[in-house]
Amino acid sequence: MKLAAALLAALAFAALPVLTSSNYVVGVGISALIFTAAAAALNLVYGFTGLLSFAQLGFWGIGGYTAALTVVSLGGSFWTGLLAAALLNAVIAVLVGYPMLRTNRHAFVISTLTFALLVTLIARDWVSLTRGPLGIPDLPAPQAFGLLFDTPRKFYWIAWIFSVAAIAFLFALCSSRIGRTLVAIKQNEPLVRAQGISPMPYKLTAFALSAAITGAAGGVYCFNLRIIDPSFLDFYYMQTFLIIVIIGGAGSFWGVIASGIALSALPEVLRFSDDFRMIIYGVILVIAMFVMPSGVAGLLRERRVARMREALR
Amino acid sequence: MTIDATYLLQLTLNGIALGLLYALIAVGLSLIFGVMEIINFAHGEILMLGAFAMTFALPVLGLLYWPALAAAILATMLAGLLIYEVLLARLRTDEFERSILITLGLSIILIHTAQYFFTATPRMVDTQYGFDGVEIGTIRLTWTRLIGAAAALVAFAGLYLTLRFTQFGRAMRAIAQNREAALMVGIRPRVVARNAMILAAGLCGLAGSAIAPIQLVTPYMGQFLIFKAFALVTIGGLGNIPGAVVAAVALGLIESWVGGFFASAWQEGAVFLVMIVVLLLRPEGLFKRGGMRVG
Amino acid sequence: MSAILRVSDLRKSYSGIHALDGVSFDVEGGSITGLIGPNGSGKSTAIDCISGFQKLDGGTVTLGGTDITSRPAHLIARAGLMRTFQTVRVYDRLSLADNLAIAAQQFDPAGWIDEFLRTRRYRQAVESSEQRARQLVELIGLQRYYEAETGILSYGQKKLVALAAALMPHPKIVVLDEPVAGVNPSRIREIEVALQQLNRAGETFLIVEHNVEFITTLCHQVIVLEQGRKLTEGTAAEIHTDPRVLEAYLGITPEMAAAEVRGAA
């Protein structure tokens, strides 16, 4: 049922450029698709596995820079750039994830934050690699099968295909035994160990896959902007992913997808000044954490469990 | 390159001053973690509030340093009380991730509210001391720097005595070591947590008002400092106050030395690299936490 | 019968205090063995060390002839030693069916590739795991909660779920850490019956418990620990009349114990 609804929604979304003549709306649609994929990747580590990772921001940036540099410096195509972004992120995630996951959950959160900040510093200060604060402008439009995706309308298809593929992959993962084991690790790690399962490989897998998808999302997004500079690592992106996950309901797959689509449109609808928009974001975050710490999906779920409890009394 | 002894000494003194500043922030974080097992993401914004309070108090008080400092510290302590009563008091223990997200929201609100009202333009703060200072040989130290460092030292001495010898300090250490046992002997964790939060905010406010005359004041000034402080408390072992102080002063020195000889990128990245190495070698931090130790 | 679990000379100390000071015992295959002792006698430490949740300072543990000393917890479980926990641990937000399926998944040969391709190996593994799960759920009498989240169950019911989960992969031995502590007395009898039934079907249990009556009704062999050492060992009847045990464990004389038994009967 949910799957059918998701398929319908995906198809409806595919029709967006046909339905509207506004390039602005198409642009919002592109952001919504990419942010939703990145938020779904964060949901894999935070919602399912219980690891609050700020490293996503770093992976987003590494992905963007890798894709851009593959094209600009190495002469590769957009597609090899995306692949490189995903692979490099997965490798980095395994390398930094192992020592981070060995620490306790408090130190894990802080070290992921530190990782994101280090990436920001590299983007700004390693000028010979990243071209520093000036960034890399004029990224060429992607090409495939002789088509040039040079307008927002055409680029929309790339964003759509990428997001649908990423979300489908994550869904397959989350509804598999691996996904179930991740949920089990989040709920009760000692019990998982007592049942013969070593948590580390699972956590590391979730962390690396999430990094790969976030990185590829960053790659797609920077080619949408057609430029990448250190502001690509603005903490704003991390906050956006987090808010999508929290409002939708950490640990609820479709809840996060739905809130990703809904909330990506929100900043565009609330067209106040940047500061005012961020204040609203902050207020939403604080209120949500008190009123519905497990999101909209959590609220619905609680009602379902209450009904079940009633029925089994 | 020949290393000039005076230059090195100057770097060292600057490093210690910087380290004491970091320590003021990190100690507060460690204190809060010890009592409540949470991280206050908005701690840097308390520092920013302290700096802005100093900025506004100084002209009103005729540029007098000490009354303005006291006013700023009181303001931040009040902010700490408010943050505790409105937000943190509702948290249960073992809600670490939730505490981060709530205080992250608060941090976003505070930064952008400050930016909305005060704009992002950096402010300079003038005090009665201006740029006066003392000169020892060829080394020159401004009064504002010296007083800032001295105030930090006095604050640490006060904190040490408080934790060591007062009823409140003992209660705080008891909770950090064993919450259940502390409850059983009648310590009220909420009161202790509130006091810890006020104390931590006050220390942070001191840091903020002390650097206001030294650095430029902007709404974002707390953010980068707090990320460093997070790294510091992790290096020092979460909840371990002396560990945080040692790590903070060491970092101040390292940053100052590195900054004196290498590009500034290395200076800012140093703490994060150190932290990664420490966590690789000792996942629990340098000084493993065995409750909150004092002295 | 031969010893399935052989523990010899376990040593463990915390900052100078000997929690375990050379404890040795055997658990016979197919038996129910009890491990009792007063608070702080080291029984919880003993099973934490045996199951790999704490590091041993010395001694050896062999399971079915294989040395499992100081292996990480998950490898000890894979070797065939499953355990439960004193404060009940289940996955509150997963269904009872999933709780049991996870407990068995590490023990079947199907990997993620099998799952992705839905190979025969995968389907067989899922099928046999489900069959076992239904059997065990029937035994613990929670059929109607099969699809329900275990979070809605009572504490006693969760203890039964934890027991069933431990049995899922057909382990060589199940170690139960205080299976009836905090359980409603009316439910204790249910657990007793379930354990006896399982034991007749060939399962081996090592039970750590405070409830002496529970232990003496169930166990073939009882080991008594005191202050990190083995005080004595014997059948339930022998233990029950051993004056040393009564004194160490209950702090009472045999006459008082006898009076208590009469009172309870």
Automatic annotation (TrEMBL), chain A:
Q: Does the keyword Cell membrane apply?
A: yes
Cited Pfam families = BPD_transp_2
Q: What one GO molecular function would you report for this record?
A: branched-chain amino acid transmembrane transporter activity
Q: Which InterPro entries match?
A: ABC_transp_permease, LivM-like
Compartment(s) where it occurs, according to its Swiss-Prot or TrEMBL record: Cell membrane
This protein's source sits in the domain of life called Bacteria
Q: What is its main location?
A: membrane
Keyword Transmembrane part of the UniProt annotation? yes
Q: Which GO terms describe its cellular component?
A: plasma membrane
- Protein keywords: Cell membrane, Membrane, Transmembrane, Transmembrane helix
Positions of transmembrane segments: 82-101, 108-127, 155-174, 241-266, 278-300
Membrane topology category: Multi-pass membrane protein
The protein's name is Amino acid/amide ABC transporter membrane protein 2, HAAT family
TrEMBL record, chain B:
Family matches, as InterPro entries: ABC_transp_permease, BCAA_transport_permease
Would you name any one GO CC term?
A: plasma membrane
Q: Which domain of life is it from?
A: Bacteria
The entry's localization annotation reads:
Cell membrane
Q: Name its GO BP terms in alphabetical order.
A: amino acid transport
Gene Ontology molecular function, alphabetical = transmembrane transporter activity
Query: How is this protein positioned relative to the membrane?
Result: Multi-pass membrane protein
Keywords linked to the UniProt accession: Amino-acid transport, Cell membrane, Membrane, Transmembrane, Transmembrane helix, Transport
Q: Which residues cross the membrane?
A: 16-39, 46-65, 71-88, 100-118, 143-163, 196-217, 229-254, 261-281
Q: What is its main location?
A: membrane
Keyword Kinase tagged: no
In the record, the note on similarity to other proteins reads: Belongs to the binding-protein-dependent transport system permease family. LivHM subfamily.
Can you say what this protein is called? Amino acid/amide ABC transporter membrane protein 1, HAAT family (TC 3.A.1.4.-)
TrEMBL record, chain C:
Q: Which InterPro entries match?
A: AAA+_ATPase, ABC_AA/LPS_Transport, ABC_transporter-like_ATP-bd, ABC_transporter-like_CS, BCA_ABC_TP_C, P-loop_NTPase
**PROSITE patterns found in the cross-reference section:** ABC_TRANSPORTER_1, ABC_TRANSPORTER_2
Tell me the ranges covered by the ABC transporter domain, including all copies.
5-252
Any keyword Ribosomal protein?
no
Q: Which GO terms describe its molecular function?
A: ATP binding; ATP hydrolysis activity
Q: Which domain of life is it from?
A: Bacteria
Q: Which UniProt keywords apply?
A: ATP-binding, Nucleotide-binding, Transport
Family annotation (SUPFAM superfamilies): P-loop containing nucleoside triphosphate hydrolases
Q: GO CC annotations?
A: plasma membrane
Q: Which family does it belong to?
A: Belongs to the ABC transporter superfamily.
Q: What name appears for this protein in its UniProt entry?
A: Branched-chain amino acid transport system ATP-binding protein
